[in-house]
Specification:
30% of the residues lie in helices and 24% in strands. The chain starts with a helix and ends with a strand. By secondary structure, it is of the alpha+beta class. An 8-stranded antiparallel sheet has the order 2-1-3-5-6-4-7-8. The protein has one domain: RNA Cap, Translation Initiation Factor Eif4e, CATH 3.30.760.
């Protein structure tokens, strides 16, 4: 995967390190013909070559910017409107920024029960009311308690690494941490585009190496029927 591969670097072998700056033999120095003549400037060529060989830092840009959001369970109980306790945490646009954030935040297994953690394309709020999300829906997979960490990471890598054939359909993903289980949902734009949704669902299961059945619920159904909403697609 593109994001994972960017974290790896080829380390030099001990032989390469040893031969990187070999020490000159004493007889080579003594017998060298490269004795500077009077008035000759020494060292310019060497210093200029060192400067030209320096490689400037180039971050690995992602195709889209992404934002992490967090809905704190302790804040939820004090709010009347759903989503009013949700806060954006950090927006990233490079591979390096992603890993810097991911490696310094709690993973789902360490989050308190009732917490919701999101990663959505920048400027898309993880709410049904968002104009981009309004006509969409979500695929959902359920995991045992503290068992979603790896799948959450693979989901993030597949999204930001643009691994989905219909990646433009994807809004983002959320992990819901509850007392007895955890759920990861993948939100998409156009719920009625059955072919695109089925493609995304199948690819997601492949990325996670999952054999579990999962369903797709339209946001419109969830708004009207709440927990009574039924899966429109199942794979």
């Amino acid at each position: 995967m593109a994001v994972e591969e960017s974290q790896k670097s080829a380390a030099p072998t001990s032989e390469e390190v040893a031969n990187a700056n070999p020490k000159p033999h004493a007889d080579d120095v003594a017998g060298s013909d490269d004795v500077p003549e009077e008035g000759e400037i020494v060292g310019d060529d060497d210093s200029s070559s060192k400067k030209s060989s320096a490689v400037p830092y180039q971050p690995h840009l992602l195709e889209h910017q992404w934002t992490f959001w967090f809905d704190n369970p302790s804040a939820k109980s004090k709010q009347t409107a759903w989503g009013s306790s949700m806060r954006s945490i950090y927006t990233f646009s490079t591979v390096e920024e992603f890993w810097s954030v991911y490696n310094n935040i709690h993973h789902p297994s360490k989050l308190p029960g009732g917490a919701d953690f999101y990663c959505f394309k920048h400027k898309i709020e993880p709410k049904w009311e968002d104009p981009v999300c309004a006509g969409g829906g979500k695929w959902t997979l359920t995991f045992g308690k503290t068992k979603s960490d790896t799948s959450w990471l693979y989901t993030l890598l597949a999204m930001i690494g643009e691994q989905f054939e219909h990646g433009d359909e994807i809004c983002g993903a959320v992990v819901n941490v509850r007392a007895r289980q955890e759920k990861i949902s993948l939100w998409t734009k156009n719920a009625s585009n059955e072919a695109a949704q089925l493609s995304i669902g199948r690819q997601w299961k492949e990325f996670l190496d999952s054999n579990d059945s999962m369903g797709f619920i339209f946001h419109d159904d969830a708004k009207k029927l709440d927990r009574g909403a039924k899966n429109r697609y199942t794979i």
